Amino acid sequence: NKGEYIEYIYNYNQLVETIYPENPNMNIRYKYGEPTDGNNAGRLTFQEDATGLQQFEYGKLGELTKNIRTFALDPNNIYTFVTKWQYDTWNRLKEMIYPDGEVLTYSYDKAGMLKSVSGIKGQDEFDYILDNAYNKFGSKVMTICGNGIKTDYNYDILNRLQRLTSLTPNADTIQSILYTFDPNNNIIEVQKSAQQGVGGAMHSTTIKYDYDQASRLTYSSGSMNYSNNGYGFEIEMQYSPSGNITDKQLDANILEVSGATHKQYDNHYQYNQNQPHTINTINNGQYNFLWSVNGNMTYSADPNGERGLFWDEENRLTTVVDMGKTANYYTYDATGERTLKLTGNFEQMNINGQYNIDLYNINRFALHTSPYIVFNNHGYTKHYYVEADRIASKIGGGMSHSGNDFGEHIYEFDISTQNDYGRKSEENAKTMYNHLDSAQSSVGSQFDVLLDVDYRIIRKFTETDEPENKIFFFHKDHLGSSTQISDMGQRVIHHIEYMPSGELFAEQRDYWHTPFKFNGKELDEETGYYYYGARYYTPEVGVWLSVDPLADKYPSLSPFMYCAGNPVVLVDPDGRAFWEASNVREARKYQKNNGGTFEKWKGTNKGGTYASVNWNSSDGTANSKVFEPTNDSWGDKITKFSNKLLEKFTGGLMGTADNGQGQETRKGGDAARPTDLKDMTSNIPEPFMDGKIEEIGGININKNGDFKKNEDEYKTKDGYFSVSFKTPIKNAIAEDVPYWGPEDSARKIEKIKNDDNRILNRIVSIEK
Question: What residue numbers bound the domain in which 641 lies?
Fold first, then answer.
């Protein structure tokens, strides 16, 4: 509405600058490698944003091998951190060097799956994962943390996670979770138990779930016994057709860190007419909300007070002010990741005993130098990952082993002297004051703001080298939520239970606790919001604070709806798109209309689960289906398609077999064709290895359907043979078919032959 715009400047197809209309400190500048820069040629080498400057270096395959990052916190506190990576030719991470000098090593088994993770810093060695094991589908079945706690994962016949159990070396259970599913693959019950919790307390929890026809959660009840004390909750939910929450009722006796608390509400949601997915009020004014034209929440009020929120041009939340309580300010880098969090309380200062000043004293900070190291007022914490999964955290002891000069800054673009770094930090402070003023105006107040953050603790740790013996291991549920956290002594020092939408059901702490809770995301305790990356989520209200950046991907759903109304099975990794939790796998489901053809296929197929369809006549009707077939269950459906052959091709078999009655078997892929398979004369095994049959050793068939004797004529760069069918073949017999895991990926199918060297009208059988 202001007629303002974000300007993007390109050099041919390379973005070189982004200019913002209201916050020049956010302007982004990019520089790319010259043709003579070796591996860096044509790649992003420098990036300047609101946080400072970054330099990037790359390997031969284009992988990032080095990141040098300089932060401009204030004119007197400018620090540089260096992180390095080393990958193998399969693009697997082999080694990582943290800014404090710790060298992390990742080891893999023969199938290319992660086996262990260890670290060394100075003379000290650390184990983060001692061992991992996997099943034939690539699902993890066992992991041993660095403190010796072993977790076993058990799956059902559909390869869905059915039970996980974490045991200490003394066989004490610190976590046992049992999942029960309905026919739609929704979780309907979770049973948890532990012989050892915080302070050695035993506890058990049972949570049940009900869903509507759209798999949206409508009811949940939970009960927990903790040290012989009972706690529980009941939740009821109702939705509009598009997924707007219309009613949410809660009655709960919960266990907080401070003790038992009763929480109850009966919320009725009303929405704005001009923005039909934004909440106007709850319970006729008990809760009120305002939204910007971009769909960002700018104001909220509840019985606890008023809150103002302010957003930048990229629709990122920068400021949250609770009137007369706290003020919070966030800074983001060019990728949209939050790097600096500043917070402070409302205070009244007496000057010489004569008059008072009301102000927000911003004196606490959290600096994310990367996902791996976070500084705050007390020191720094290191985080350890397997891909995006945080497996452990450790209190850092100092950076004197790094070999880096933390005062050696990067100089490029506008930042050519340290004074320019000072100017950037001053611009950042000016923007902070402006945004805090704007957020305060939303709640009708205008208190002073004092920026009094002491970053000198960072300088202190660049010169120290203390032992790092406080290591904490995350034990999670199927959603990636932190449920139990243990220390090196195998003691549980943080225990958390959740209600379905992420509200805390129980929490007990010892001497350390993590802010990474529901879905493994960071909970800002000052605001009660979860930070997901692209958006913030409020679990009590149950909505996102802003529009989904990928809202066009889900046109039938509210862009503020969390996980399509199913937070029990679905996760949203960064606030932009939801999918099934990694440990929950779903088989195909069919719906047949009166004409016998398939009307739709629902669900996904992530775990190597197969489905057989029996076509009972040439008109394309189907009268039965089999999930996860065994040799005995095939019967007269597909008599000569061995399940062992299916197992060999869990990574890619999507083939078709026909026994003369038009029956089809396939894994994944698009919907089954509602036609007679006998009439399909082109590429019957249409997808077999991500598309068409492209790799068969021992036989080559040209476009006319004739056999080519020369095996090398159609050989591809990966060592496979190319086949093009004009008509399908009969009696193709597979022999010595390998499992195509990473270690076998260069092998070909050695022996698939046609018995009588003739092209006939259909595939009759494929056998092992």
Answer: 591-768
